[in-house]
Amino acid sequence: MGEPAQAELSLPACSWTDASTGPSKLVVANRSGKSVQLVWLSYDGTEQVYNVLENGQDTQQDTYSTHVWELRDEEGGRIIQYAGPSVRIHVLPEGVSVVGQPAPPATLPSETF
C-alpha cells in the first residue's frame, strides 16, 4: 500500500488582533491505522502537542478560527495543517477527508492582480 496523500489547506491571513477570529471546534477522527499527533502552532512559532490519537480514537478540540493546527504521523511528518471555522477531519489510510470546510473563493480567469 502506498503512502497516504498529504493535504494542505490554505491558511487565512491572521494575527493576534484579527477581528474575524471566533470560537471554533476541530474534531479529529483517526482511522489511519497509526498514531496521529494533534499539534498547535503558536503565533511565535512554538509547537505544542495537545493530543496523541491512537487508531480508532476521536477528539474534539475547542479553538479559534485563526489558530493553526497540524496533524502529524508517527514520524512527525505533516498530514494536514488547518486554521479556520469548525470542521471534522477524518485521517484515513489513503489520506484525509475534511467535512465542513467552506469552498475556497473562486478566481475568475480574467482577473489580474
Automatic annotation (TrEMBL):
A Pfam family of this chain: VHL
Transmembrane segments: none
Database matches in InterPro entries: VHL_beta_dom (IPR024053), VHL_beta_dom_sf (IPR037140), VHL_sf (IPR036208)
Organism lineage string: Eukaryota, Viridiplantae, Chlorophyta, core chlorophytes, Chlorophyceae
von Hippel-Lindau disease tumour suppressor beta domain boundaries: 20-75
Protein name in UniProt: von Hippel-Lindau disease tumour suppressor beta domain-containing protein
